[in-house]
Amino acid sequence: MTRAIRLNETGGPESMSWEEVDIGKPGSGELRVRHTAVGLNYIDVYHRQGAYPLQLPTGLGVEGAGVVEEVGPGVKGFAVGDRVVYAGGPPGAYSIERLLPAARAVKLPEYVNDQLAASVFFKGLTVEYLIRRCHEVKQGDVVLWHAAAGGVGSLASQWLSHIGATVIGTVGTDEKAEYARENGCAHTINYRKEDFVARVKEITGGAGVSAVYDSVGKDTVNGSLDCLRPRGILVSFGIASGPAPLIDLSTLGAKGSLFVTRASVAHYTGQREELEGAAQAVFDMLKAGHLKADVPTVYPLANVVQAHRDIQAGKTSGSVVLMP
Question: 253 and 296: one domain?
Fold first, then answer.
């Protein structure tokens, strides 16, 4: 037996419960992993709320680091005692131990500790595919990144700054603006005080940006389109403020032959080669010092209800890690 957070019905943070569960032995293609650190990501909130429906009852959490305790039939490339990290696959990371498809696990290099892995792996994979494969940002490009002080936004700002792009970041407080600048944002916009569309036009001399990365959704999508230069792209990858409004295709033409995509990390790491390549890119950036993560905000796994309340209230910056 082990213990895990379970979701029996969708709702607020209090809908999660800390229960004793029997996970059994790993089946074909599976690993039994003992967690040493678990990443909290905003997709967990979406799952808990039912915005991205799961079959209930279910576990929660899609990112974790730990140690392989048992290897199931047919698994190659992993052994008991291996340190691994994973992102994606069936939710269930909010647990002391779990069964995991080996296809989602990646061995951790020695220079990446478990807490760091759990705080940056999923977010690093997200940044990698968004700026290198979903839409390739190049040196000299100017992009707008919403929620620039969040876990994904802070890593994205560092990576984009490293390749020579100019990042304009939106934030909700002056303190988060300072944090975003420290992580590579050339310009910050406090959306609670400023009209982000007007400021983007001012910063770019009316030209607009080549890409907007939007994980906010309802509150920002229409404004994001207005920030784009002709033939620019809106990359939507989250709905923190609620489902995004419908976009009339004729609007995209009227605003400058714009592009829009709704991207998901699952579609860019679904193939093993893609996952391994993306993971290696993240590890290389960490090793070279181009990606640096602050000490994450840490909660005991059993206190995940408070962690969810805080992340939804915007009380956290950077990454949040749950410790079993």
Answer: no
